[in-house]
Design brief:
The complex is a heterodimer of chains A (about 260) and B (about 160).
Chain A (H helix, E strand, L loop, with lengths): L4 E3 L4 H10 L3 E4 L5 H6 L7 E4 L9 E4 L2 E5 L4 H5 L2 H6 L1 H8 L4 H4 L4 H7 L6 H7 L3 E4 L3 E3 H4 L14 E6 L4 E8 L6 E10 L2 E7 L7 E2 L1 H9 L24 H17 L2
Parallel strand pairs in A: 1-3, 2-3
Antiparallel strand pairs in A: 4-5, 5-8, 6-7, 6-8, 9-10, 10-11, 11-12
Chain B lengths: L1 E7 L2 E7 L5 H8 L18 E4 L2 E4 L5 H4 L3 E3 L11 H8 L9 H18 L5 H7 L11 H11 L3
Parallel strand pairs in B: 1-5
Antiparallel strand pairs in B: 1-2, 3-4, 3-5
Helix pairs in contact in B: 3-6, 4-6
The chains are: A alpha+beta (about 260), B alpha+beta (about 160).
Chain lengths: ~260, ~160
Amino acid sequence: MYPTKYHKPDSLEAASAAMAAAEDGKILAGGHTLLPTMKQHLAAPSDVVDIRGIAALHGISERGGALTIGATTTHAEVANSAVVAAACPALCCLAAGIGDPAVRHVGTIGGSLANNDPAADYPAAVLALNAMVITNRRDIPAEDFFDGMFTTTLEDGEIIKAIRFPASECGSYSKFPNPASRYAMVGVYVARVDGRVRVAVTGAGEDGVFRHDGMEAALSAEFAPDALDSVEISDDGLLSDLHGTAEYRAHLIRVIAKRSVATC
Amino acid sequence: MATVNLTVNGKAVRRDVPDTTLLSEFLREELRLTGTHVGCDTSQCGACVVHVDGKAVKSCTMLAAAAAGGEVTTVEGLANGGLHPMQQAFHDNHGLQCGFCTPGMIMSGVDMVNRYKDSGRELTEAAIRHELEGNICRCTGYHNIVKSIQDAATKM
């Protein structure tokens, strides 16, 4: 990788200052995307600011069924959390299905969201559960956070502090993992929040995670897997790559959504 | 340059290295602990797995500077007098062919047995195969690796 300057601040203020002073700084929250990208010379930040030394960004808390998960909380910590298991068990299953055990020991929820990989799992949960992304500057509703493939509405130097998930009546996530990478070819999170059904699809969209109005309407009328049989699922705007065509992904969306509803 | 202080296999080490130095490079090139292998260098194959503060991680996807202050255990640090039960089990069950993936398999094996014991879960054959998702072996077909970990789990 190209030379870079590594920082490990112990406060959010120091992290912000390091980012402000950097010519082209990048936040490192786990590094399982950033470091491979730097090795391939696809990223060459002048400074890398590791936020894992900031205690306030780490940990899980629950209040009235709502969960707050710190940005540097690892996938393994979410997967094994009794607090998450009680409030939102589907999040534990989602986290337990990311990568492999060694990856889950290091990769973090904040890193996954800030990177917004179109095949990442967490964006589906955040969008389906209508979560709030809390940064050092503002609270960003999920609807306003994701902004296309590998793109979010985070501004330069803005740092995710935590994700706040509202209490949900039900939630379930299923995915069809790519057999080699374990990234989602299609992943569907189905949730009921405040009496409303929300369906978020990851892995399939050219612009990253998206909600599906047709499936939400059908499930609002009848919350059952068969209710999805007659929903039109267009392959417009879906990814086509060496792993599968848009048409194949459109087919998978229905299959995987039905599995999620069946286990919700 | 970053000054990296680490405890590696119980010994304190200190080196000044470029900020971009990976933990795998630090172990192999600075400390000459070449038991940790680098296969894919893209965090997929698991040959580089070591334990940092008690958890299995892919050392090719961690900066040495990020591990600073921590405790690292490599495959060289497992044996304490005799072979570690996991190493002995790989020997007894012939859990390898070419041996390239073996250090990572052993470190992941120790990690999974410890985690399952700590949480009181049974480490079944199916669980071992699932847990080995991030460790790739291109020789054995995994059968004897799985047997080795099952065997070691009864002795750890």
